[in-house]
């Protein structure tokens, strides 16, 4: 079934010439949706609608906002099976991963339904007698959300839910490869009674994103995507003093020490490296292994990687789906060639797979015996391609973990309390995972990295209020 999508502007589903196509990466002969592509003029209309809706929405009772978010969460949850299947068809993650992501999106809305009611201001004692001092948290204004294809419902949810909870209005531009999932979310938000203009969706390509970034009516920008695009957005935002928050790439190290439980270490690496086809900014893409466990670990991980069932996202037996789109697929294969040319040894996978349906399938790849300076250890691949580096001890592992431009998530697998505690403090990353995969985070906990991975206040959980509100300080005499 091919859906025809619309924009959503000022409470109206706005059709257009459906020139864009969303393709099922598990079967590229299948069209998931056709969609219209917006332009700068349409972004301007959407921003205008969001500006007009702002006074009403930001001053509405928090109960009104909470009720909307709760209803959106419940509706997503009730339709999790269908939405999960749509997501798996459009993005290529497995049905279980797709449904899990939909449930995450639902729970994010429910969490922020609670946050909307919470009191985020403070009262302070004045140094002057008879004066009251209080801080309030007010909406920032119209927020522009630019979201990636790898979490096509959870990331729009984790930006939109706090934005709405705290009284902002929204213009969302979802990633080009996954418009149908974002459209389904927008339709639910409207169906649940969002007032016209509170939540606007503009579909399209990079020019829509740029029009949002450069629009003087957008007060804040939240972006998740590549570092290159993010750097440009930050510059443009700072130039016109718009608030900006960005989540970008990672080259997340997973350190495996000699004293680790081997089976556990392998299971953690398998999950962090290959699940969701490695298409997570938090993926464990470089594994740093100490000498004493190295050979056993690499052999066991290679064997498990070879055993993973790659297939159509909707086949319940599939463990690893296809790459989400052609460009990503080519990038995975390009990095395979780069790694081999630089001297890496392919311990498993990396082959293009011809299955029953034509899709972007490759076998999960483990590239062993790599040198820390190889490009495969510095650049984000965003696919099921994992490298290993051998080091002599913990100190060398930590040193390597701290190299590179990124600093999103870092993991360690060890039974040593001493090393786990030291790593937690000394590793340069926004998130540290001890005996857990670097990817896979809770929906109610702050999220974000350091260095080139993130910029601006943290997303999610109790931290989301920082970005989506501005503080007003009131003295009363
Ligand atoms: C996760 O690891 O559960 O785009 C979430 C991404 C991240 C989210 C990862 N912003 O991959």
Account of the 3D structure:
The chain is α/β, with parallel strands linked by helices and 477 residues long. The protein has two domains: 277 residues, Aldehyde Dehydrogenase, Chain A, domain 1 (3-Layer(aba) Sandwich); 182 residues, Aldehyde Dehydrogenase, Chain A, domain 2 (3-Layer(aba) Sandwich), CATH 3.40.309. 39% of the residues lie in helices and 21% in strands. The protein has 14 helices and 23 strands. The chain has a seven-stranded mixed sheet, with helices on both faces. A six-stranded mixed sheet has the order 10-9-8-11-12-22, with helices on both faces. The protein has a three-stranded mixed sheet with strand order 1-5-4, covered by helices on one side. Helix 2 runs antiparallel to helix 4, helix 4 runs parallel beside helix 5 and helix 9 crosses helix 10. The longest helix is centred in the N-terminal third of the chain and has 23 residues. The mean pLDDT is 97. The protein binds 2-aminohexanedioic acid. The site of 2-aminohexanedioic acid has 11 residues, from loops.
């Amino acid at each position: 079934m091919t859906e025809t999508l619309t924009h959503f502007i000022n409470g109206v589903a706005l059709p257009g010439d459906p020139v864009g196509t969303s393709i099922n990466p598990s079967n590229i002969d299948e069209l998931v949706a056709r969609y219209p592509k917006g332009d700068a003029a349409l972004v301007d209309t959407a921003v205008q609608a969001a500006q007009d809706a702002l006074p009403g929405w930001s001053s509405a009772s928090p109960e009104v906002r909470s009720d909307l978010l709760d209803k959106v969460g419940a509706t997503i949850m009730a339709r999790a099976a269908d939405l999960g299947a749509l997501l798996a068809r459009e993005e290529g993650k497995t049905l279980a991963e797709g449904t899990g992501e939909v449930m995450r999106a639902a729970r994010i809305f429910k969490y922020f339904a609670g946050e909307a009611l919470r009191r985020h201001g403070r009262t302070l004692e004045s140094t002057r007698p008879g004066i009251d001092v209080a801080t309030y948290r007010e909406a920032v204004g119209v927020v522009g959300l630019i979201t990636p294809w790898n979490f096509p419902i959870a990331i729009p949810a984790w930006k939109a839910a706090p934005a709405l909870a705290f009284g902002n209005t929204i213009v969302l531009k979802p990633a080009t490869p996954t418009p149908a999932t974002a459209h389904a979310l927008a339709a639910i938000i409207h169906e649940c009674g969002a007032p016209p203009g509170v939540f606007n969706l503009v579909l399209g390509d990079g020019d829509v994103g740029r029009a949002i970034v450069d629009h003087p009516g957008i007060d804040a920008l939240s972006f998740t995507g590549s570092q290159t695009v993010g750097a440009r957005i930050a510059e443009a935002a700072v130039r016109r003093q718009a608030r900006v928050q960005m989540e970008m790439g990672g080259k997340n190290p997973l350190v495996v020490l000699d004293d680790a439980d081997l089976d556990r270490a392998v299971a953690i690496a398998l999950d962090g490296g290959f699940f969701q086809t490695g298409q997570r900014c938090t993926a464990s893409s470089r594994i740093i292994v100490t000498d004493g466990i190295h050979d056993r670990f690499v052999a066991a991980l290679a064997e498990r990687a070879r055993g993973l069932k790659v297939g159509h996202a909707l086949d319940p037996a599939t463990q690893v789906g296809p790459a989400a789109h052609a460009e990503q697929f080519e990038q995975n294969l390009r990095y395979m060639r780069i790694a081999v040319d630089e001297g890496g040894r392919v311990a498993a996978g990396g082959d293009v797979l011809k299955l029953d349906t034509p899709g972007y399938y490759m076998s999960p790849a483990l590239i062993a015996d790599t040198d820390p300076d190889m490009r495969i250890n510095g650049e984000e691949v965003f696919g099921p391609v994992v490298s290993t580096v051998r080091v002599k001890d913990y100190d060398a592992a930590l040193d390597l973990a701290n190299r590179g431009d990124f600093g999103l998530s870092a993991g360690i697998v060890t039974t040593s309390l001493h090393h786990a505690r030291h790593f937690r403090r000394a590793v340069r990353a926004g998130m540290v995972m001890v005996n857990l995969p670097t990817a896979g985070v809770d929906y109610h906990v702050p999220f974000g990295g350091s260095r080139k991975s993130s910029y601006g206040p943290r997303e999610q959980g109790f931290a989301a209020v920082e970005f989506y509100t501005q503080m007003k300080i009131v003295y009363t005499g």
